[in-house]
Design brief:
About 75% of the residues lie in helices and about 0% in strands. It is mainly alpha-helical. The longest helix has about 35 residues, at about 60-95.
């Protein structure tokens, strides 16, 4: 990931330098893949079982399951957002 950011920013990458970005280079795509191919299809499936979205009660099991999955989805999105911001700040601070 460090190599890619270096090349895209017009800098010559320093080969062999240990980076914190290596962990994020595998961590972030893993989260995104789980969200895209695991969580999002499950959310769509549950959403289709909710009979009437505006009138369904809060006690509807499908609505509760969708809310739970939506909470997980939002948490994963925040993790990716903050990890990406940390990566950018780290690169701007130590990547020079």
């Amino acid at each position: 990931m460090y190599f890619i950011i270096s090349v895209l920013s017009g800098r010559i990458p320093k080969v062999g330098r240990p980076t914190g970005a290596a962990g994020e280079g595998t961590f972030l795509p893993t989260i995104l893949a789980y969200h895209t191919y695991g969580l999002a299809p499950r959310m769509a499936e549950v959403r289709e079982t909710i009979s009437s979205r505006p009138t369904a009660s809060g006690e509807d099991p499908a609505r509760r399951e969708f809310s739970r999955l939506h909470g997980i989805s939002m948490t994963l999105n925040l993790v990716v957002l903050f990890a990406g911001a940390i990566l950018i700040l780290w690169f701007e601070t130590f990547g020079r």
